[in-house]
Design a protein that fits this description.
Keywords: Glycoprotein, Glycosidase, Hydrolase, Signal. The protein is α/β, with parallel strands linked by helices. 41% of the residues lie in helices and 14% in strands. The protein contains 17 helices and 17 strands. The strands form 5 sheets. The chain has an 8-stranded parallel barrel with strand order 2-3-4-5-6-8-13-14, surrounded by 6 helices. α8 packs parallel to α10. The longest helix is centred in the middle third of the chain and has 28 residues. It is globular and about 65 Å long.
Length: 507
């Protein structure tokens, strides 16, 4: 066979399977020098000890105890992975994987039992200090999220994120955290996934969509910016760390060329709502969002737009208030806008304001859960858009991963997911996207919010049926360990689970 004929056959095979040559090549792809790999969890999802050692009630404690079957199987996070007592095993798992860092969140009601700065719970501080010090003992970088959804219930009783006073409450809490841990913690995330906090936690949960999520969004962005400037002005000079926000971003793809504008509108409403005020040159909410909500509000008889306005001072304060673009990404959606959208959504509402229909293509692979479709090219397009729209900011991928619906260690679908999404990320990086951090969600199986323990995201399986909450490495953990060890992506690497998961020298 001639070399030309061989190349022709390779091309035919690639086209037959709908793949480009990159996807069937055998060479390994190196990550840049200094690239960091880690994993993540959040406090309510893993800690347990829900009322131990002075911890107060969070909104998730209240909901799971008073409306238990809101969550699948009536599960609660009362014990979860019991990381409050198992933190040394958690760090041992980090060492087995060889992690560069671990991203975890603080529990506001564990640190401030009254929700305010008048009383600081030393037992809560001790837990986080022990975890941080145990990680640093083995050169694992702690990355802290200040807020990952577990608001003190007392503050929710006052309106939570829809009350403008939350700006001061959150800033006070942030100050206590910076003071307590900032001598050793150099990476901070203010707020995780503001869209989910505001849309799901207020617009939908309170049945006030089109109002509550917008109030929440404004207050949350101002609170984030206040905490950012507090750190920048008072703590960064002596602690030398970095701080930013984490935005969840589903990629919204137009169904046809006629839906390009609709897909752009969806991206601006979904994650541009929080990215544009911080990362754009002009600041403020996206123009299309302001225009559409104002027009809809006028049609509906409101005296003013349901989207609150920022003052000029707030716009300036929020603009640039993140040292990096933190992004959580899992999947993509298809977007369509035609006459069928008229009357499709409840009015007024966030989705009616957006004016599109979102759905998942049946042609996209899934793992038995409708919202979780595997679309790695969406990840590539998302990172490319961030680069092009916001001047190529430093990007931290703060969550990426996939679920499985059954227990078990042979998680080949998860290994496949990671390979394909990491490849898409490398494609964007090769074109110039400044991605410096990748975080696999998650280190271990968690309490997965409304799904409880029904779905599993962990590199380590947790046995939730026994008090010890034993953790066991899955095949994906072996894959991730090799990725971190070599700092290269080998699409053909097959983990050997017959070899026990052990700690390599240096970890």
């Amino acid at each position: 066979m001639t070399r030309l004929t061989g190349l022709f056959l390779v091309l035919i095979i690639a086209l037959s399977y709908g793949k480009d040559l990159k996807n069937i090549r055998h060479e390994k792809r190196k990550f840049p020098e200094g690239f960091r790999f880690g994993t993540a969890t959040s406090s309510y999802q893993v800690e347990g000890a829900w009322n131990d050692d002075g911890k107060a009630e969070s909104i998730w404690d209240r909901m799971t105890h008073t409306r238990p079957c809101t969550v699948k199987n009536c599960d609660t996070g009362d014990i979860a992975g019991n990381s409050y007592y198992n933190y040394k095993r958690d760090v041992e798992m980090m060492r087995e994987l060889g992690l560069d860092f671990y991203r975890f969140s603080l529990s506001w009601p564990r640190i401030l039992p009254t929700s305010f700065s008048d009383q600081v719970n030393e037992a809560g501080l001790n837990y986080y200090n022990n975890l941080i010090n145990e990680m640093l003992k083995y050169n694992i970088e702690p990355m802290i999220t200040l807020y990952h959804w577990d608001l003190p219930q007392k503050l929710q009783d006052l309106g939570g994120w829809t009350n403008p006073h939350v700006v001061d409450w959150f800033t006070d809490y942030a100050s206590i955290a910076f003071e307590a841990f900032g001598d050793r913690v150099k990476f901070w995330f203010t707020i995780n996934e503001p869209k989910e906090i505001c849309l799901n936690g207020y617009g939908e949960a309170l049945n006030m969509s089109g109002h509550a999520e917008y109030l929440c969004a404004k207050n949350l962005l101002v609170a984030h910016a206040k905490a950012y400037h507090l750190y920048n002005n008072e703590y960064r000079p002596k602690q030398g760390g970095t701080i930013g926000i984490v935005v969840s971003a589903t990629w919204n793809e137009p169904e046809t060329k006629n839906d390009i504008v609709a897909a752009e509108d969806a991206n601006q409403f979904e994650w541009g709502q929080f990215a544009h005020p911080i990362f754009s040159e002009s600041g403020d909410f996206p123009a299309v969002m302001k225009e559409r909500v104002a027009a809809k509000s006028a049609e509906q008889g409101f005296f003013r737009s349901r989207l609150p306005e920022f003052t000029a001072e707030e716009i300036d304060m929020i603009k640039g208030s993140s040292d990096f673009f933190g992004v959580n990404h899992y999947t993509s959606s298809l977007i369509v806008r035609n006459e069928s959208v008229n009357g499709y959504h409840i009015s007024p509402s966030y989705y009616d304001d957006m004016g599109v229909i979102m759905y998942k293509s049946n042609e996209w692979e899934d793992f038995g859960f409708p919202w979780m479709k595997v679309v790695p090219e969406g990840f590539y397009k998302l990172l490319t858009k961030i680069r092009e729209d916001y001047g190529n900011p430093t990007v931290f991928v703060t969550e990426n991963g996939c679920m499985q619906l059954t227990a078990g260690l042979e998680d080949d679908t998860r290994v496949s997911f990671y390979k394909r999404y990491l490849e898409a990320m490398l494609d964007a990086m090769n074109e110039g996207s400044d991605v410096q951090v990748y975080t696999a969600w998650s280190l271990m199986d968690n309490f997965e919010w409304a799904q409880g323990y029904n779905v599993r995201f962990g590199l380590y399986e947790v046995n939730f049926t026994i008090p010890e909450r034993t953790r066991t490495a899955r095949k994906s953990a072996y894959f991730y360990k090799e990725l971190i060890r070599t700092k290269e992506l080998d699409m053909h690497f097959e983990p050997d689970m017959s070899v026990p998961m052990t700690i390599d020298e240096g970890h």
